[in-house]
Amino acid sequence: MTPLDDQLTADFYNYEALLSDDERKVLLKVRDFLRTEIKPLVNDAWAKGEFPREFIGKFRSLDLAGLAYEGYSEYKPAASNLLIGMTAMEMSRVDASSATFFGVHNGLAMYSVKSGGSQEQQDRWLPAMAAMDKIGAFAMTEPMGGSDVAGGMRTTARRDGDTWILNGAKKWIGNATFADLVVVWARDLDDNNVKGFVVEKGTPGFAPVKIENKLGYRIVENAEITLTDLRVPEANRLQRIDSFRDVAEILRATRGGVAWQALGVMIGAYELALDYAKERRQFGRPIARFQLVQDLLVKSLGNITASWGMLVQLARLQDAGIFRDEHSSLAKAFVTSRMREVVAWSREIFGGNGIVLDYDIARFFNDAEAIYSYEGTREMNTLIVGKSITGQSAFV
Question: Where is the Acyl-CoA dehydrogenase/oxidase C-terminal domain (predicted)?
């Protein structure tokens, strides 16, 4: 393992060197793209609380969608989970909202079609999604159902000949205000099992309303969706999804991606704090010379390094096809908890300037709260791991 020319300051144990040369070229391409195309626009978009539609074209030019799926990207064969994770980390290192926009499309939506769709459905939708000519969204969470949605989904589907009629509501659905394809999950009134439906933009009965006044993830356009006698053809029902057990496979894979996003937020916050500590002077010297500031930086670096090591092994388990729900749940619970500590310590180093958007750290601090909660709260992921190690279920 040799030093890398432009290794991140937070990569204290040289994890990037685990990538192949070709993989690292992809990562560096992403890093440069985010620095030049996304970072200059982020704070203005965050302050306005809206997703710049121009980001879609920018991400399309990056040609990264479909990276995980063989045959749908310039990168062939399908990339390793280590590269996929590090690209999610790289995006969140600059802007967690942009990482979530891409993750919802490339992860939750595309993986739903890839994992749950028939070959015909994959051929129909995935090429356009990989090209980002069609943007996807994933509608699972409901106004009255978050962690308990598996057993208490209120959105219903009733078959009527060759169509399905959907009624209900979804909430916190990223990309839904502008998505071309929304994967909607509903409970079949006939057999009480959860099924997936691809709802195309403009379908009557589909009404998304943007959620306003958020304190975090302000660039992500989350929506509350009302479904009123919405008709979906049988051809748009994901043919390989027969129950929530099938949906759990999708969530298992994407939950690990959220942990990588949390690592990226940690790194971004740490880098900002380290640079600021070197420049900010108090009592005639840079605050980086003060012991208490160094203590905060070292604790942050420890959290980053430990989390990175955990996620490297998670990626290896994924590549080997032997990772389980509890593996991704432990990563999500642990890494997001460490992220919360790091963004707080980093904001502390900024003092009063830490609450001003101009210094970027306030954005990281607020966005971290969204990552901490979504794709399974810490408590729910803890219970998944707890059941695995004790053999006893503590779920109500």
Answer: 247-389
pLDDT in tens, 7-22: 789 999 999 999 999 9
Query: What is the helix (H) or strand (E) element at residue 228, kind and residue range?
Result: strand 222-233
Report the alpha-carbon distance of residue 320 to residue 23 in Å, rounded. 18
214, 48 Cβ separation under 8 angstroms: no
DSSP for 29-44?
HHHHHIIIIIHHHHHH
Start-end of H helices in 160-238: none
pLDDT tens for residues 282-329?
999 999 999 999 999 999 999 999 999 999 999 999 999 898 989 999
Count CB atoms within 10 A of the CB of residue 125: 24
What is the C-alpha separation between 239 and 264, in angstroms, rounded? 35
Residue 145: per-residue pLDDT:
64
Q: Name residue 142's beta-bridge partners.
A: 145
* Alpha carbon distance 280, 24 (integer Å): 33
d(CA 297, CA 327): 28
The rounded distance, in Å, linking the Cα atoms of 362 and 218 is 12
| Domains, the chain | 15-130 (1.10.540.10), 136-236 (2.40.110.10), 244-388 (1.20.140.10)
Residue the block writes with tokens 């994992």: 115
Distances (CA, A) of 97 to 93, 264, 358: 10, 12, 17
Question: How far is 79 from 88, CA to CA, in rounded Å?
Answer: 13
Q: How many CB atoms lie within 10 A of CB 176?
A: 27
Closest CA to 376 of 340, 339, 326: 326
